[in-house]
């Protein structure tokens, strides 16, 4: 359980991810903090789902509870992405 919340967005804000992250337990490879609407997206190495039925919507707290390394990118600016090459690798930030 977290004793602090470093994100500007509330823990219950809706975020987008995919079936392979939520249902299959794949590690998160790519995060985007979208410029157009400020939405967060969290995807595995397989990328965003091609099939809309593979898309999943969860709370930001739920996805952070699944992967505490996301706390490292809580300050990712809108319009930026973060990715990593392996589950235990450091996040690399890039302006989208």
In short:
The protein has 96 residues and is of the alpha+beta class. The protein is 11% helix and 27% strand.
Question: Overview of this structure, please?
Answer:
With 96 residues, the protein is an alpha+beta fold. The protein has one domain (14-85). Helix content is 11%, strand content 27%. The protein is built from 2 helices and 6 strands, in the order βαβββαββ. It has helices at residues 19-22, 60-66, and strands at 14-18, 30-33, 40-43, 55-59, 80-83, 92-95. The strands form 2 sheets. The protein has a 4-stranded antiparallel sheet, with no helix packed on it. It has a two-stranded antiparallel sheet with strand order 1-4. The longest helix has 7 residues, at 60-66. The chain is globular, with a radius of gyration of 12 Å. The termini are far apart.
């Amino acid at each position: 359980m977290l004793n602090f919340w470093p994100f500007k967005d509330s823990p219950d804000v809706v975020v987008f991810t995919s079936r392979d992250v939520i249902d299959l337990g794949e590690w998160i490879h790519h995060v985007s903090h979208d410029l157009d609407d400020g939405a967060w997206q969290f995807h595995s190495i397989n990328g965003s789902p091609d099939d809309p039925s593979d898309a999943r919507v969860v709370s930001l707290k739920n996805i952070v509870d699944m992967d505490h390394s996301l706390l490292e990118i809580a300050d990712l600016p809108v319009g930026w992405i973060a990715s990593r090459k392996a589950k235990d690798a450091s996040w690399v930030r890039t302006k989208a």
